[in-house]
């Protein structure tokens, strides 16, 4: 074998010590669910990894009761510094079990091991470290000298960053003194179960975190439960709308992190190689299953051909395949249903007159795969320019002036994120002021930090996660105003 042919062996699953079946995690213990158990499969091979318990409304009731007991008797009475110690312990245990968590996440979700190893899992630990530091400093959260926790938080998360979304939800809730019942997505519950083991290792008091697995109906039973004080949801705009209606008129506080259709705007003065890297990362990271993905490339007309050519050249170097292989850039699509959605929307793009280009590569026989795709000749009216595809599909549009770039970027019901590529700092700032997006990156994309608030405008939801702002979502507002 020549040096060029050498490829390291895929990350071994031998590191995993998985159970054949996982129960619900209620009151510090794994217990049976009342619904039928379901399989969690590897989207890369369609093989069953483990069986997962299904919670019905009575199980959700038990979980909420456990969270309430533990809130009243333990967690809300504990000092902030003691709560912080538990969060630090969880962060350290995530680091200790990092390799195992990365392998399990890649196996269950289909995302490349390089991403779970270098992005997802380190960020999970970073989120717990960051909020551990806040637990005894809540008086600096901006809500007055003695901010109060809300009570029991009901949290529902999607499948695209299973463990990271769980950390985004649980870490600030616990730091602020709330207890939690969380529902992972049906197709990606495995790492939440490993996280439950970590909570046991950390000796977290029973009932502080409860995990109920199951389908959308389980999530619905949770968010509509009468004894929860806070609902935090990340997922599709449709389900977010339903939840907003269900929560309306109750005393529950609500935060919603929903979809996006971000514009990545490339000006002719940008460093083109750097911009191309950023555009590739913006849409092909995590197979495009990213709410803030740069799914629309807005490129200045005079550099359109050059940018698209270089994009195609760069994409031709990407490797699609086994998520556990360290050389893999593009992993599997998370489910058959999501693959179908991506296919349908891409076919619509072609039928509406856009030009499709796809990476020429072999796709494994088994599993769910979609080759990285670029659409050119896209107009603002095309479905692929308006609807969130949530897959490795980039729609390219052009603009002539900064005004036109802003107008096109804002021409979407969403407002989660945007990217600007230019050498001119004055242009970055001017554009950032006028883009209706909660997160704006300049000369970079998809950068996340626990200290930095994340969230959207318009139909991308409301409330912020991360930073000091992420804490206020889990604290009672006293009407106190910081002195100016
Ligand atoms: P959804 O179908 O909305 O599912 C999200 C979660 O809600 C899942 O756990 C789901 O359970 C559950 N659910 C479904 N119906 C429910 C109901 N009526 N009541 C309560 N919970 C319910 O989204 P998805 O397909 O998992 O994720 C893709 C979408 O999420 C994309 O649109 C993406 O943009 C968005 N997303 C946004 C963000 C942020 S930060 N803004 C982050 C990630 C994803 P099941 O899995 O069992 O159906």
UniProtKB/TrEMBL annotation:
Per the record's keyword annotation, is Cell division included, yes or no? Answer: no
Catalytic machinery residues: 257
An example Gene Ontology molecular-function term: oxidoreductase activity, acting on the aldehyde or oxo group of donors, NAD or NADP as acceptor
Q: Which residues form the Aldehyde dehydrogenase domain?
A: 30-476
Question: What Gene3D superfamilies does the annotation carry?
Answer: Aldehyde Dehydrogenase, Chain A, domain 1 (3.40.605.10), Aldehyde Dehydrogenase, Chain A, domain 2 (3.40.309.10)
- Mind listing the UniProt keywords for this protein, alphabetically? Oxidoreductase
The cross-references to PROSITE patterns, in alphabetical order and at most eight, read:
ALDEHYDE_DEHYDR_GLU
ATP-binding keyword on record:
no
Tell me the protein family, please: Belongs to the aldehyde dehydrogenase family.
Q: What is this protein's name? A: Acyl-CoA reductase-like NAD-dependent aldehyde dehydrogenase
The organism is Microcella alkalica
């Amino acid at each position: 074998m020549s040096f060029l042919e050498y490829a390291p062996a895929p990350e071994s699953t031998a590191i995993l010590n998985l159970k054949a079946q996982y129960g619900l995690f209620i009151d510090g213990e794994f217990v049976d669910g009342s619904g039928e158990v379901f399989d969690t499969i590897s989207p890369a091979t369609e093989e069953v990894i483990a069986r997962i318990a299904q919670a019905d409304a009575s199980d959700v009731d038990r979980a909420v009761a456990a969270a309430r007991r533990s809130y009243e008797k333990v967690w809300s009475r504990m000092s902030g510094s003691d709560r912080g110690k538990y969060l630090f312990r969880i962060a350290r245990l995530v680091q200790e079990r990092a390799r195992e968590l990365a392998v399990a996440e890649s196996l269950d979700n289909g995302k490349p091991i390089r991403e779970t190893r270098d992005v997802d899992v380190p960020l999970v630990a970073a989120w717990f470290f960051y909020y551990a530091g806040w637990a005894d400093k809540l008086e600096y959260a901006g809500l007055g000298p003695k901010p109060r926790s809300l009570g029991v938080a009901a949290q529902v998360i999607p499948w695209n960053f299973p463990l990271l979304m769980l950390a985004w939800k649980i870490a600030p809730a616990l730091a602020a003194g709330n207890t939690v019942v969380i529902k992972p997505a049906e197709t990606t519950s495995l790492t939440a179960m490993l996280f439950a083991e970590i909570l046991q290792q950390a000796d977290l008091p029973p009932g502080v975190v409860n995990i109920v697995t199951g389908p959308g109906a389980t999530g619905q039973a949770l968010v509509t439960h009468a004894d929860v004080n806070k609902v935090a949801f990340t997922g599709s705009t449709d389900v977010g709308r339903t939840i907003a209606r269900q929560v309306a008129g109750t005393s529950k506080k609500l935060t919603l992190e929903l979809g996006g259709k971000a514009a990545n705007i490339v000006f002719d003065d940008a460093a083109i190689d750097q911009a191309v890297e950023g555009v590739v990362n913006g849409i092909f990271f995590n197979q495009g299953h990213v709410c803030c993905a740069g799914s629309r490339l807005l490129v200045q007309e005079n550099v359109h051909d050059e940018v698209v050519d270089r994009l195609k050249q760069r994409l031709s170097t990407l490797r699609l395949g086994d998520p556990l292989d360290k050389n893999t850039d593009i992993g599997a699509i998370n489910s058959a249903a999501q693959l179908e959605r991506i296919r349908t929307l891409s076919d619509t793009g072609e039928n509406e007159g856009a030009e499709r280009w796809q990476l020429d590569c072999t796709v494994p026989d088994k599993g769910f795969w979609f080759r990285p795709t670029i659409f050119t000749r896209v107009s603002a009216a095309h479905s692929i320019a308006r609807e969130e595809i949530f897959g490795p599909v980039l729609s390219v549009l052009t603009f002539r002036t900064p005004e036109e770039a802003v107008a096109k970027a804002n021409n979407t019901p969403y407002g989660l994120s945007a990217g600007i590529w230019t050498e001119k700092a004055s242009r970055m700032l001017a554009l950032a002021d006028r883009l209706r997006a909660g997160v704006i990156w300049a000369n970079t994309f998809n950068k996340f930090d626990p200290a930095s608030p994340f969230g959207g405008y318009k139909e991308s939801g409301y409330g912020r996660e991360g930073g000091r702002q992420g804490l206020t979502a889990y604290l009672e507002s006293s009407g106190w105003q910081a002195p100016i």
